[in-house]
Amino acid sequence: MQSRMRIKGALIGAVFGLLTALAGPGVARAEPTAATGDTATAGDVTTVGNVTGFEADGSVYRFRAGAAAARVSFVSAETFRIELAPDGEFTDPTGDDIVLAQGAAPATRWKDRGDRYDLSTSKVTLRVHKSPLRFALYRSDGTRVWSETEGIGWDDERTTQTLARGAREQFYGGGMQNGRGNTSHRGETVEVSVDYNWDDGGHPNSVPFYLSSAGYGVFRNTYAPNTYSFTDPVSASARERRFDAYYFTGDAKDVIGQYTDLTGKPFLPPVYGMEIGDADCYLHNANRGERHTLDALEVADGYLEHDMPNGWMLVNDGYGCGYENLPETAEGLQDRGTQLGLWTEDGIEKIGDQVRAGQRVAKLDVAWVGAGYKFALDGCKDAYKGIEDNSDARGFTWAPESWSGAQRCGVQWSGDQTGSWEYIRWQIPTYAGATMSGLAYTTGDVDGIFGGSAKTYTRDLQWKMFLGTTMTMDGWAASDKQPFRYGEPYTSVNRDYLKLKESLLPYQYSYAHEATKSGVGMVRPLALEYPDDPRASGDAAKYEFLSGEDFLVAPVYEDTTERDGIYLPKGTRIDYWSGRTYKGPTTIDDYSAPLDTLPLFVKAGAAIPMWPGIRSYTDRTADSALAWDVYPQGDSSFTLYEDDGVTREHRDGAYATQRAEVDAPVRGAGDVAIRIGASKGGFAGKQSKRPYQFSVHTGSAPRAVELAHKLPRLGSEAAYEKAASGWWYDKDDRGGVVKIKTRPLSTAEPFTLRLDGTSAVGGRTPAAAATLSAPRGQEIGAGSEGTVAVDVTAGTADVTDAEITLDVPDGWQATPARIKGRIPAGRTERVQVAVVPAEDAELGEASVTALVRHRARGESRTAVQRFAVDVMPPPPTADAWASDLDWLRDTNGYGPAERDRSNGESGAADGRTLTLAGKTYAKGIGVHADSDIEVYTGGRCTAFTADVGIDDEIDGYGEVAFSVEADGAVVWTSPKMTGASKTVPVDVPLDGARHVRLKVTDTNGSKTGDHGDWAAARFTCS
Question: Which of 46, 280, 317, 802 has the CA that lies 20 to 30 A from 721?
Fold first, then answer.
């Protein structure tokens, strides 16, 4: 039956073509001589039939297919809309909520080709096949962009478009897709709808938009849930009995730009919005006891006392929290350089009064999703507008479960999660992937709002400093989670990364402004910048992203001090910490990443504007310097964007731009010129003059540095710090950095800085430089003499005169070591450096930096590398209870692991007497699955014994398994145990193991009642 229909349609279509050999533009109508609008039905799905009528009206074209109607409307030369109404009546439930008013429609033309109509602009041609009605898009050069494999179909629940899939076609989009998105969706199904799933696999902040590497994107203009199956063929459906989609043509950035032209460009946050935020409940806090809103000022003081940025604070972030003394709280926070935010759990009816009292940030609740996404989108727009209508500030909102269009009014936040290594892992691809849907600001809480640990908090904070926005949330966890709560070394590492972000605000803010023009956010998947690299779209790049074009970030998402599988695409990248250069494409394994080191790589040619030496943007004065961090290679540039940072005056043109251009050798020796253009434009507070600082990563000292005349060369770091202008070559800093200061210079005048007789990044002979590494797993005793091994590898030239020094923690001692003779090119020599840790050195991981000064190819060079050593406690020398020993790790599922008590609740020492099957124990460890306790035995112990089970306090609940690991190997496991199981004895030989880990794992997917006891846990040692 279906074949006969198609033959009939083809014959009549040919006659129809003869009768309607007309070409646009203008208004035209053509009707066939016979009814050809039959529809095909397969099961309950109806497919649109043959064209029975055609009408052209300027840039809008209408088609009839029996009872169904279709309409094509061109928005621009590369953007158009296709609508299909099965009953012939067009509807638009979104109205003007999402799609903004557009400019004049483009000039179009049409032609009847017999079996099809061609609808054309200067850029594209949409082919509309007649029998049956099917669409296909072609570029002006005749190459196909996409084509339907069958006509649009519908049933009672959904309407579906089916497209052919290219052999190597990749797909991105769908909004915030937790755990994926920065690599291709090819072969996957993506749901676009509210699901309130904040974890891996969830899809909060969905967007009914996707883009293809074939050069197009599709936005489904609807509030209905969507499903995209990027199989062969591609199936894209929306849960409604209508079809309404916009199509965009071009590369990925072009498509994102066109989509955000249609639905709104991302907003420009205030500069304080790009600093870290802090959220908690201060009034009626069920987790913290009764407090008052003004107590938020004490927390703000904590940031100041620890020299940490803090841009804004939500002071009522908890259900039923409320607030009091709002004007006084706002004023107190502003006195501390922090802005007031409120959670809108109770609605936004009071936002006018709240903003007039000082509110500048609004975080929307999930309740704002309401009955469909219109409510959520209206909430975002209304809160944003409420801030702007009642102050001179910019609207700044945060929203979960938003929709297309929300990028113009808010940050998209991924919801309530539990801090863990797994949380870090799946968040990495989430936010870069969301950029592919026009979401410029997506983020999650540092270390989640539940659970977490000092180490996961620090690791999570590191990489989130390279997102545009982020915050830390306190009141839902067992204890507060501000970055200064964990003690050393965590507080210092957190401070360093918070201040690194602060110094990078000119770079990040410039990208924020760019997003308002291009629609493309700063946080990007590698595939966006390297679309022709097949590895950039696959798993090789899944757990890394670009922060702007210049930074490649590869977060550590496991409890390790080494990172494997870092993929660097084509080009030269420089390790931010060591200055080591890498030639891509390449994959780095065994990258040394102690706790203080985020794997971070800079693109050669980068010129990065920075604010040096500040805690907060409010520290900037009229005399503050602007710094440029330059990695010279070839010709490159960067345009700095500046405005007042807080008001909306920039929308009326009150801003300035300043362009930096770098002219350098592509490789090796040569001169470097840095041209800083005049600052164009103006705004309140713009500097009329300012000093400049430059860090130029050459790897080779210049003969001279000139700025109209030769600048004085300074002989030491101390002399450089004192001088008002001049330069110093710091050979020990990241392979060699030229540091330059100028006196205040007029921002209205351009200037050129010349470095004579130096080189591109990497030095005159980059491959000749030595590199450093260290074997993993090195251990050293607190207060004990020991050695740390360092490996020195020569490059393409012999290394001579090598001396290795170690930068160690305060209180430690390290003796420099020399290598006698030479290290032949390409060879590695291991050097043992004598080290004595402090008596009171913190147990566990310590970060050490090795520096080797050497000569290669007749030039003095340096290489530097950070790595971790483990500080061990004295091993037991006699039998010992596990609860009496130092623990190298004590990961626990809820609250702290307890010594000689059951797990209890969230606080320390709140457990009960250890009890298994009615028997009580004075000694042991109480935990909550999943847990991991590590003990250092140093090869001194021969056995481990214990009784294990779920504590009686749980009354029969819970299901877990126990295991013992010795030096990384599992040496004993229990059966699955419930609260009703009998106690299981443990008697495990250790055979001289150095490290023992006691693990309790949940076995039924529910953490309820998983209170595992290692009762009478004891090591037999000598």
Answer: 802
